Amino acid sequence: MRWRVSILAVLAAAIQGACAQSPTLDKAAEEAAIREVAEGSLLSAAMAGDLDGVVAAYTEAAVMMPPGAPSERGLDAIRMLWTSFLELPGIEIQRMDEAVIHVSDSGDMAYSLGGYQLGYMDSEGNAQVEQGKHVRVWEKETDGAWRIAVDIWNANP
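Structure (tokenized):
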């Protein structure tokens, strides 16, 4: 009987210790990490025409949902979409931001709402500006990095 009490005491102590050592979710830090990808490395890579840097911001099975076009899935398709976008005449990403970031209580999923502004040349060579909004779904991968799983956007009227 005494050994049962000892085993229970050891198990209780181990469980309590494990619970005390489990990390708490710092949502502000996770939001900052997402913002760094979106407004830092992704934006910098896109502005520099660095396709590898752009694609690195997406999960393997990511889905892009461009306006007026079919959805595309996977890194090869994402690379092709970004390639065609960055080859538009006079394209200039003037702003891309995440206005709202919400991290799930589990800390492995998030969504963001944001906006963008682009400059480009129309078919007649006239400078144009497009403003719009986007929604992104983020996954925290096993390496601890936040990557985009779903990316959808459209221009404001």
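The helical segments are 2-21, 27-48, 51-55, 75-86. The longest strand covers residues 127-140.
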